[in-house]
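User: I'm writing a tutorial on reading structure tokens. Could you give me a worked example: one chain, its sequence, then its tokens, then a sentence or two explaining what the tokens reveal?
Assistant: Sure. Here is the example chain.
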Amino acid sequence: FNKTKMFFDVADNMDEAAIVERVKKISDYKKFYVGRNLLLDGVAIRAASNDPAKFAAAVKKVIENTELPVILCSFNPAVLKAGLEVAKGKNPLLYAANKDNWKEVGELALEYNVPVVVSAFNDLDGLKTLAKTFAEAGIKDIVLDPGTYPTGKGLKDTFTNFLKIRRAGIMGDTEIAYPIMAMPLTAWMAGIA
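And here are its predicted structure tokens:
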């Protein structure tokens, strides 16, 4: 059993003071619930600007203001590399490798020896192929993102995909037996959160 980890985001297009304020709130968050304190487990840093320098500055500001783990979020390998340079020694999770950038992101994961998310929205065959390719390349710390859809048929697909991945792992399919990530950010993007 692995406890669910909850990360809250900051975006690199926020001003510096807003980043620091949000990171402090994330770090200090505590909610008493059913006999225990719930805490946030880390900070996801989104490259909303798609600018390597701006992203690196945001990563630097976050890691200066918290000891929590971080996720570096971009599909642009140049942006991820800029963040990795700043976060050396922090073992950030890279988000994410997909069918378009898998080679470059895989090389970054190997070069910096960091965990990586493989992402194939609503495509379990593609997700399995990415995970298998990364494992064969020597990347062992892999997280799966099968896509998270907040409404309608997409919500049903999300639930079904998560069940299929879990069942495959339980049934011994080691090629897809990795932790699963859900991103509620899609609910915000759809305007329902």
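What the tokens reveal: The chain is about 45% helix and 15% strand. Strands lie at 7-11, 31-33, 36-38, 42-46, 70-73, 93-97, 116-119, 142-145.
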